[in-house]
Amino acid sequence: MRPERQHQIWRSEAGSRLWLSGLIAAMEHAERPEIRRQPVAPEILVALRAQLALTASFRSSQMSTLRH
To answer: What is the pTM of this model?
Structure first.
């Protein structure tokens, strides 16, 4: 999915809930001991860093339009 499309989804309440649900599911999966013992591939770390940077820049630039 293109980054600008992700931003449009996150602007809606349903999109925010969907994103948060996915994050919670990923965190629950990652906390399992058998998963935590596995090494993380370098390309996954690169993709994760890119996603985190995108999310942070989006939130800081759009903060005034978000409703909580």
So the answer is: 0.45
